[in-house]
Amino acid sequence: MKSIQELEQISSQVRRDIVRMVAKAKSGHPGGSMSSADFLTALFFQVMDQNPQTWTRDGHGQDVFILSAGHLTPVYYSILARAGYFPAKELGTFRTYGSALQGHPSVRKGLKGVTQASGSLGQGISAAAGVALGKRMDKEDKTVYVMCGDGESEEGQIWEAAMFAAHHGLDNLVAMTDWNGQQIDGTTMEVAGNGESLKAKWDAFGWSTIVADGHDMAAILDAFAKAKALRGGGKPVMILFKTDMGHGVGFMAGTHSWHGKVPSAEQVEKALAELGETPLGDF
Prior knowledge:
Layout: H1 4-25, H2 30-35, H3 37-47, E1 64-67, H4 73-82, H5 124-137, E2 144-149, H6 156-167, E3 173-179, E4 182-183, E5 186-187, H7 188-192, H8 198-204, E6 208-213, H9 217-229, E7 237-242, H10 265-275
Helix pairs in contact: 1-3, 1-4, 1-10, 3-4, 3-9, 5-6
């Protein structure tokens, strides 16, 4: 068990990794990666029953995680590396030709920790629901976690999967939404009116819905504990984590402009100074 301070140090290092990875590759998506760093850190380092030493893609005997918002690989790869799935030095190969660390998660090169290829938005909850149903059929007392974005939640397949999971009572399925209110072309309200109604939508689709501050580590852990307590209730769980896109770096926070923008050398220096060094060290 890690302390809240230790988890916060890890998430800060993850943000440093994100900035440096995207800058080095001159490509990538820092905004949503930064906003989801805290709750994904809590998930991998405290909540999820998954061991990098015994991890297999079939997920037997362990919890499973699927990243539906597949463009957010900077945060995904950093957390996997920092959790011991592969050496942190490999983060320097992000988005380079031949690397296992492609712009979207791929299973072709067998990267440890990646269960499902993703990137076509909206598909992750469908895949996770299938895994959850399989675990129930196998009588495995394990949980399937999946993360999607609020912009991604404009995809119809999200809601098809929501109906399926509720209909089959998949209470071993816990989904998370990075609810930062931003997407590639603007705010979610401006693009499709998909804003404050998210909780009402998930409630209406038959899910147990939890809303939590996605940057308060204690609140994040409490939300996961509440989700765990709902196991056996016959409903899948959605945790809506309220976040700020680009969180952790002042000039990146709260705007869609950093959805897929690469920071300049000067901006990298400024961002890293604001984030501060951690005991984990840079890759």
